[in-house]
Amino acid sequence: MLNTLSGRFLILTVIFVMVAEVLIFMPSVARFREDYLLARLERAQIASLALLADDMIEPELEAELLANAGVYNVVLRRDEIRQLMLSSPIPGEVSRSFDLRDASAWELMRDALGCLVDGRPQVIRVMGAPLRDGGELIEVTMDSGPLRAAMIDYGLRILLLSAVISIITAVLLFLAVRRLLVKPIKGVVGHIQNYAAAPEDARRIIRPTATVRELREAEESLKLLQTQLTQALRQKDRLAQLGGAMARVSHDLRNILTSAQLFTDRIEMSEDPAVQRMAPKLVNSITRAISLCENTLAFGRAEEPAPSLMLFNLSELTNEVLEAERLALDDHDVSLSEDIPASMTVRADSEQIYRALSNLIRNARQAIVATGQPGEINVAAHAEDEDWVITVSDTGPGLPPKAREHLFQAFQGGVRKGGSGLGLAIVAELVRGHGGKLRLSRSDDAGTCFEIRLPMGDVS
Questions:
Q1: pTM
Q2: Are residues 288 and 385 in the same domain?
Q3: How far is CA 347 from CA 268, 358, 360, in A?
């Protein structure tokens, strides 16, 4: 019950109604006390009229009049004369006096609370204005016991009535909340569960029917989300099928191109000037096609495995990468250097970091070679408070603006002609696997610089 929305509304309603009733309890009891005392003054004034009609009345009649009025004596002031109209023996001294003529609401509530709290029998004096201009002041003495008993009885009836009102109000609100709020919410939850069972089925997308504006907006937002998700899942399936087809085509095409590459060796031996002029271009085209097929197959395989973290010397690893790249330089005037502290160790997967650096350096080398100008590639690293920072910079021509828009997206971030755009996508994936970031920190006419940030600590 307490874990349901309607149940909590029920309990809160009962509490709030009871709090409201408690707040009005004292004003109600104070008003009851004032009416009670005014009624005693009115009876006392009526009883005093008998004496005004006949100066001498029997003691038995006087006692009966005082008993009916519920007072011990009556004092009436008329024409500036204060006169004891009716009297009887008082059982004790007057403890307190109350003037109802100019009493404020705060004073009435204070006196009512005092009467409820103090249960001792007391004789009190009450003063008020006579009715119908029957004098200037009427004053009575009376016992506070009957007054307190009447106030307690009235208070209990008020509390009982409050409890009944609270229960009725809470039940009505409970039913209203279930009908107007809980039932529509359960309907939305049911739609979500139904959709989750088969998100590819467009028939399970919710159809907004709520009449409450907020619920209607929630249903429309859910419909938009489900529609987009269903479309994304369909597109994912199509891309997966297309990727499988591309992998098969790339595999077969690579085999065909490999065979064609073998035949180009014989073509290069031809003495025909035209063949000798065209053969290198054919060889380069076939080589690029084979490279594209191999990269596509590599990227289409399963996701990169989780990195195996271990401490290793970054300077030694970088030198291995640079030595491998120097073998591919041939006669090109490109210098490779590193600026890494000899004792610097990082905690990462050495094989994956090797691949990441190799891709970045190879891209830089190919960009410089394409210009036909000499250049330099530098790998530097340093440690910060929370990260290891590795930079790969070159003096190449920089990246064109179009290439920067989709730099780390596969098949879209290619820079050089014939490139697949997979190198940087693979590097970004390897760095993300370490919880790090790959970003382009600089690219202009003076060259390009990529920055790798590897976190030192584990994810908390």
A1: 0.44
A2: no
A3: 49, 18, 20
